[in-house]
Amino acid sequence: MNHQTLRAGRIILALVPFAVAGLACKRADPEKLERGIRSKLEEKWPGAIEAVDCPDKLELKKGNNFSCTVALKGGGTMSIDVTQNDDEGNVTWKPVSSTVLVTEVVESSLQEKLSEQRGGVAITVECGDAVFLGGSVGATFECTVNGPDHPPLAVTVKQEDAEGSFSWKFKDESAGLAEIVESTTHPDSPPAQP
Question: How far is the C-alpha of 177 from the C-alpha of 175, rounded, in Å?
Fold first, then answer.
């Protein structure tokens, strides 16, 4: 069977520190935190963020942990873990999971694996212009594989989990490229996150 499973890896964003304290109280300012998270994510994926939602009424206390949710344009969400660094509102955050896959990670993972399986032949994979793909476990989408020795081939990609794993298979199994695909698991991956 023409089938492949890859682990696309974790979304790579460094821990991002900044202050979120309100001026007149000992509560965090969730709107300031939401703006800060959105700004950093928009730097990496311009136009891809619909909204950021963090809990209201957070006490400023060193070591407090909580989660914020990022809604993505086109559907899907991302979970952000936040840790308060001190009692002054300084926090560090990082994406931890997502319901989507990052398009460029899917494309590069497939290109690398297929090129390797073809003895280093240059393979390109195109999955469209969207920043993110999928949106839920089991979601499928189409990509096109191009190579120098065959016409463009359609590939169906399926999101396997919220940690960045996906599988694929050629739509036309009679395409004569069965040797391109074998069952393996890619060791690196951003969890379906940006």
Answer: 6
**Secondary element (H or E) of residue 30:** helix 30-44
The pLDDT > 90 percentage for the chain reads 30
User: Position of tokens 């395409």?
Assistant: 175
Q: Is the pLDDT of residue 174 over 90?
A: no
For the record, the structure tokens of 20 come out as 């979120």
**How far apart, in whole angstroms, are the C-alpha atoms of residue 189 and residue 59?**
34
- Other CB atoms within 10 Å distance of the CB of residue 108: 13
Domain that includes residue 124, residue range = 4-9+101-180
Last residue of a domain, one of 51, 70, 97: 97
Averaged pLDDT, 87-111: 87
Residue 187 lies in a domain: no
Same domain as 106, residue 84: no
Q: CA angle 93-166-100, nearest 5°? A: 40
Q: Do 82 and 30 belong together in one domain? A: yes
Neighbours of 63 (CB within 10 A): 9
Q: Which of these, 106, 107, 100, lies nearest to 70 by C-alpha position?
A: 100
Q: Which among 110, 70, 107, 51 has a CA at the least distance from the CA of 193?
A: 70
Q: What is the pLDDT of residue 4?
A: 47
- pLDDT tens digit sequence for 22-79: 444 577 788 999 999 999 999 988 888 999 999 998 888 899 999 999 998 878 888 9
